[in-house]
Amino acid sequence: MCGICGMVGIGAAAGFDESQVERMRCVLSHRGPDDAGRKLLPFSTPAGPGKVGLGHCRLSIIDLAGGHQPLANEDETVWIVFNGEIYNFPELRDRLLARGHRFRTHCDTETILHLYEERDVECLRELRGMFAFAIWDARKNRLFAARDRVGKKPLVYRAERERILFGSEIKSILQAPDVPREVCTEALHHYLTYGYVPHPLTMFKGISKLPPGHFLLWQDGKAQVQEYWRPPFVAAPERPEREYVEELRALMEESVRLRLISDVPLGAFLSGGMDSSIVVGLMAKLSNAPVKTFSIGFEEKRYDELEYARLAARHFKTDHHEFIVRPNAVEIIAKLVWHYDEPFADSSAIPTYYVSQVTRQHVKVALTGDAGDEGFAGYPRYRAAKLGQWFDRLPGPARRMLGGRFWGSMPVSVEHRSFRRRARRLFEALNMPPRERYVRWCSIFDDARKQALYSDEMRAAMAGSLSSAIFDAEYEKVPGLDFLAQTTFVDFMRYMPDDLLAKVDIASMAHGLECRAPFLDQKVMEFVGALPTRMKMRGFAQKYLLKRAFGEMLPQEIVRRPKMGFGVPIADWFRGELRDYLRSVLLAPEALGRGYFRPETVTALVEEHVAKRADHGYRLWSLLMFELWHRAFIDCATPPTGPAS
To answer: What is the pLDDT of the chain when averaged over all its residues?
Structure first.
């Protein structure tokens, strides 16, 4: 696991030197503290001389002594910088050796290089793992960059006529002194809906995320982005239930076994939920020593899962470690803003940052239960989506009553996790078309709230731009599936890479920790995509097949417990220890005068929340993270090279 960066320039844009590449690389050193390298390569084009600069910082996991990057093939005509793990590289390596390729290392990076020599961009179809890499092919004067199928590893870029810059994180690109730092208002518009910036946008105008399952070719000043894979959600013929159970068990065991390959110590995140408990249980089955497990808890009992994490740890006899998160979040907010590069409103980044910090003190690699909810319909909103399908079949008068008249008169609860609040949020959206109401359930600021928040200028700029169109485009890719299956596909394409996986990658790599997700194995994903919906949700019982396959392996208290989520008591903190901090940031003259939002609306959100007249906790958190990001990345004279103290 590493950090990669680089730039290619032609003509006047080729005037950079090693110091420029070194600045880009140094700002990523937290991702790879074990080794570092850079390489400058000249080339010629009809448009003038060109230059390539590649930078790499390494977190050594496999072949600790070898694997220095940038790495070249035998005649040094092809160079690579790589971030990730290729789990099937031993068999690929054996095949390439048999075909006459010569290897200088035992690492997976060199396998990609030789496979590219054989198959060009088609090499991607044979790689099983998580990755982001860039290959400079001097034979073609071409940059080839790619990102793994589901977006475990990030890659961002800025493509210009005579230059392209890329990196694992945006801050690397910003080290080029002439890269403008301007807010992308379209990205801000969608961020306020979803709490993350959806790909290919970033919050910086002119800088893009390479989407999951895509590759980029830059040649002769032209950039071309192509899709090579998407989650294979299909309406497959149904099979007997026992076959699904047996295949899932075999696939998950193989996936975990592959992710135990390491030359350094490894462990697992353990939340006490079903997904992480399954991963830990399989690790315990396949390991000769106790699995090291790591959990985060809160003093606020509504958010604390340590009781269940301890139960799983005792059940599997793990070497267990815990950390309690207390409301001193101000200490790490500046670090989060710097590490995430753009506003990121998923407040569970706080505990993810802490659990990564604690885990890294003991191991270098951690397995996670990520994607179990997306794959097996585990989120409460999937149950709501199914309820919505039932609701749509009711007569019109019944729909109108349940969809707003009754619930609209109910007093608003200020408790974020209260039944009354959740019920109101559910039923208020039921009269909408299915896709729109799902977006509403996922939204921090819905369309009406954004219109009330925006200044006249921002409202005019975003006229006609609907955040729901992003989800609509994904729904259209799987027209033959039922709505619940379509919705899980949408989350695989959007929420998972842009929120869940981005959160884990940035928080873990901030501490030089590699995270591996067995549920995101390519073969597991292909299995999940072909599952009938009834094997994911039977009636309103969620994760049906997971429970059938692994229920007997787990403590029954974990199997039966309802979904809790990795929540953070932001609403409580904003009324308590963080109240003054919130006001000092959001109500400061510089924040209120930026021109994006109406000052009176922001003030009302703060005061209504503090006075317990409403719960705006997540809305305020999203505004807070945007304002702090703006100060750190837009207002400052030069791009930051480290988090503010």
So the answer is: 92
| Inter-residue contact 508 to 515 (CB < 8 Å) | yes
Report the alpha-carbon distance of residue 82 to residue 115 in Å, rounded: 14
Tokens 């994903």 belong to residue: 525
Q: Are 445 and 192 in contact (CB under 8 A)?
A: yes
Q: Which residues of 405-432 are buried (b: 16+ CB within 10 A; e: fewer)?
A: eebeeeeebbebeeeebbebbbbbbbbb
Token pair in block for residue 399:
């729909």
How far apart, in whole angstroms, are the C-alpha atoms of residue 80 and residue 177? 25
Identify which of 442, 407, 440, 501 has the alpha carbon closest to the alpha carbon of residue 132: 501
Query: Both tokens of residue 423?
Result: 């019920």
Helix (H, G, I), strand (E, B) or coil at 627: helix
Helices and strands: H and E segment counts in the chain = 30, 19
Provide CB contacts within 8 A for 103, sequence distance 6+. Answer: 93, 96, 97, 110, 114
pLDDT tens per residue across span 562-573: 876 667 889 999
Strand partners for 40: 53
C-alpha 544/C-alpha 532 separation (Å) is: 11
Instruction: State yes or no: is 2 an active-site residue.
Output: yes
Q: In this structure, is the dihedral angle defined by the CA atoms of residues 306, 309, 314 and 320, taken in order, positive or negative?
A: negative
* Structural contact between residues 341 and 170, judged by C-beta atoms closer than 8 angstroms: yes
- Residue from 569, 634, 4 nearest 343 by CA: 634
Q: In the sheet where 266-269 sits, what is the strand order?
A: 319-325, 292-298, 266-269, 365-367, 514-516
Backbone angles phi and psi of 293, in degrees to 5: -120, 155
Percent of the chain with pLDDT over 90: 78
pLDDT at 518 over 70: yes
Single-letter residue type at 386: K
Asked if residues 542 and 378 have their Cβ atoms less than 8 Å apart, the reply is yes
Indicate the DSSP class of residue 535: G
Task: Give the separation between CA 534 and CA 376, rounded to whole angstroms.
Answer: 10
Per annotation, catalytic residue among 2, 26, 107, 515:
2
> What single letter denotes the amino acid at residue 272?
G
- Of 261, 238, 601, the closest CA to residue 454 belongs to 601
- The encoded tokens of residue 562 equal 């309802």
Q: Two tokens at 67?
A: 């694997």
- The answer, as to whether pTM is greater than 0.85, is yes
C-alpha R_g of the chain: 24
How far is 36 from 104, CA to CA, in rounded Å?
18
What domains lie within the chain, and their CATH numbers?
2-183+202-227 (3.60.20.10), 230-566 (3.40.50.620), 570-635 (no CATH)
Is cis: bond before 434, omega within 30 of 0?
Answer: no
Dihedral (Cα; 501, 506, 512, 515), 10-degree rounding: -10
Residue 223 sits at φ, ψ, to 5 deg, of -105, 135
